[in-house]
# Entry
Amino acid sequence: VALMFYSNDDPADRWRRALTDLMPDLDFRVWPDVGDPNEIDVALVWKPPRGELRRYPNLKAILSLAAGVDAMLRDDSLPDHLPIVRMVDPSLTDGMVEYVLLAVLRHHRMFDHYERMHREARWDYVFPPQAAERRVGVMGLGVLGGEVARALAAHRFPVAGWSRGPKTVAGVECFHGGDGLRSFLARTEILVCLLPLTAETADILNADLFARLPRGAAVVNVARGGHLVDADLIAALDSGHLSGATLDVFREEPLPPDHPFWRHPKILVTPHVASYTVPESAAAGVVESVRRVRAGEPLLNVVDRGSGY
Amino acid sequence: VALMFYSNDDPADRWRRALTDLMPDLDFRVWPDVGDPNEIDVALVWKPPRGELRRYPNLKAILSLAAGVDAMLRDDSLPDHLPIVRMVDPSLTDGMVEYVLLAVLRHHRMFDHYERMHREARWDYVFPPQAAERRVGVMGLGVLGGEVARALAAHRFPVAGWSRGPKTVAGVECFHGGDGLRSFLARTEILVCLLPLTAETADILNADLFARLPRGAAVVNVARGGHLVDADLIAALDSGHLSGATLDVFREEPLPPDHPFWRHPKILVTPHVASYTVPESAAAGVVESVRRVRAGEPLLNVVDRGSGY
# Structure
C-alpha cells in the first residue's frame, strides 16, 4: 500500500521527509510517478487533476492539504464514496491566529489611518479606545475561527462569534443562525470572516451585511474570496460607512492588476499569506489518518459533504 | 494639605474624579488655582512651568504624570531634595504592550512590504518565517520594557532583552552592559527601544548600532526621539541594511512637515500614540503615593536622579 501526493503549491520533498520521519515504512509517491494505481490507498492532495482520483480502485481516503475544502468539493469527479479529511495543523492555526491578531490590532490601533497620514505628512494626534472597549466579531467557529476568537479574547477584546448552528467558545459571546446574525453584526466594530465557503455562505459579505455593522466598522477577510461581494465592499468604504478592510483572499488569485482593491486607500491586499500548512507540524495528523485508514478505524476531521465543510 | 495638579496634556477633570473616587477627602487643586502655597504637599505634574515647584515650601513629593521623566529632569529649577515618582499605570503598560506587539507583528508578517506592494498592485507571494524563528530584542527592561519582552515571548518569539545592569525576565534571554550589547544586537532581527533617555542612552540608535544588527533588521522606537540619530536611520534604510522602522517618538513633536521621516517608504510615523496614562487606571498608584507621603512611609517607583531614570 502507498500514499499518493499531488499539489502544485506544497513542497513534496519536505512532506516526504516529515512523514517518513514519523512513519519510516510509508511508501510516499509523488504524482505522476505513482506506480501501480492498485497500490494507492491514501491520497494527500490539493486540487488534483479532474478525474485523477478515480484511477485508484483501492483508494480509501482523500486527505486535503488545505483547511478549506471548497475548491476540492467543486470537483464533481471526486469519488463520492470516499471520506475527505480536512487539514488540521497547529502551525496553520498559529499562523492564522497571528495574521488575524495583526490585522485586528492594525485597525484597532488605527495604523491604517496613520499610514495614510504618513503619506500626507500629517500629525493627527488621536487615541483609539482601549482593547476592552473595542468589540470584535468572528464569523465561523471551526478549528481556525474558534482559536482566533479565543486569542482575541485573551488580548482583552470583547469578542463575539457567529456560526450556522449553536456553538460554545470559552470567553466568547456566541451567536448563531439568521436571527443571531443581526445581533452579532450590530455590536461588531471589527469583523473577521473565517467561514467555510458553501452555498449558504457565498456572497455573505454584501451590502446588506455591511449596513448592519455600526458606522466606522472594519472588515478582515481571511476565508475565501467567494464570501465577499467586491463592489459592495468598495461602495461601503467609499460612502464612509466602513472605515477599512484587510483582504487576504480573492475570487481570482493572484488578484488581477486592474482590480479596484489594489491601491484603494482604505483596503490592504495581502497575497493569500495569512497561513499555510507546515509539513513538519502537520505530519503527525496526516500519519494518524494513514494509520486509521489502514487499521480500519474511524477518521478524524472528516468533511460533511452535505453542509460543504 | 492639598495636591497640586499641572499638565497641558492630561485631563484635570478626569483625574479629579478618578482620585477623589478612591480618596474622597483629597483636596485636588488645578494650577493656577492652587490657593495657599503652604498647603500643597504633593504635586501631580507634567512639565510644570520653570521654577513653579519652588513656590511650595511644604511640598514633599513630585509625582510625574508620565513614565519617562527625562523632560522633567532637564528642568534644573526642580527642588533638588524632593523625590520624583515615575508614573506606573496598568493601562499605560497594556497600551505599550499592544502597540509594540502590533509594530513587531507588522514587520514580522511583512505588512510593511505588502503595503508597498498594494500601492504598486503587485502580488508578491512570499512567506515569513514562523514566530519561533524570528528573533526580537528589547532594549530597556524597566516596567514597560519588561512587560513588552514577556508579551513578545508569550507570542512565541525568541526574545532577548538588554539593560545597563544585569536583570532577569522569565522567558527572556537577558544581556547587559557594553559587552552584552554586541551579542544582543548580533542576534536581533526586530529591535524595540524602550530605554529611558539619559546621558548614556542619548543617540544610542546610531550608525554603529545599526551596523551590528543583521542585514534586513527592523527597528521600533517607542522610547524617546533623543535615542535616535535620524540621519543614521535613513542612511541604514536607504542602503538596504535595515528593512523598516516604526517610529512613535521624535526629537521635535509634532514631527515637522518637512522632516524626511514623513513619506519615507520604509518608515511608519505614528504621532506619539503608543501609550498614554489613563486616570481611572493610574489613580490607585497615585493615591498610594499620596497616602505614603502623608503617613511618612517610603515611596515606590522613585526616580534615581543620578542615573536619570
Observations:
- Residues 90-108 of chain B form the longest helix (19 residues).
